[in-house]
Predict the structure.
Amino acid sequence: MTPGQADALVVVDVQRDFLPGGSLAVAQGDRVIGPINRLLEHFAARGLPLFASRDWHPPDHCSFRERGGPWPVHCVAGSAGAAFSEGLRLPAQACVVSKATRPESDSYSAFGGTDLGHRLREAGVTRLFVTGLATDYCVLHTVTDALAAGFAVVVVRDAVAAVDAQPGDGDRAIERMRGLGAHFADTAEILAGAAVQ
Ligand code: ZN
């Protein structure tokens, strides 16, 4: 399966705070960067659209513990922790989608409160290849919203990683996405043009 005309690559929240050393780190988060860079190159070489979402919170965001939320302070807009990983080779033409930018609303999904759906449709996209962090939160919710909006979805298994706050959360998220109709492939299969499972 070679990505074609109506496909886009979506990179979810590959930000420093979600990587080892960050304030809300995914333990194995670093392993997604190599596969994502190969996919970015592959899609860019074919002139296909690239989207990168980022958590982009105000300093008093409702998801922070000091405001009664579940998480430590993370991804405050403009901070070092909110920057994309320095290892991520995001081409200049990639569209950046900032989410959860207001104090009182949170969104795990890259579609929540953003114009991502509109931009994808405008670009003629019907299928998304989804990568990034974390499988059991922002990837899961982005995929759920994408399927509900009528997009076909391929989750790139070696290009996502889970928080696993409870052991098995990542695997359960994979099964939930599969149950909703998502397809799965590995980076090597996509680069080789193999069939999607
Ligand atoms: Zn957040």
Remarks:
- The chain has a mean pLDDT of 95.
- The longest strand covers residues 152-161.
- The beta strands are 7-12, 50-55, 95-99, 127-133, 152-161, 183-185.
- The radius of gyration is 16 Å.
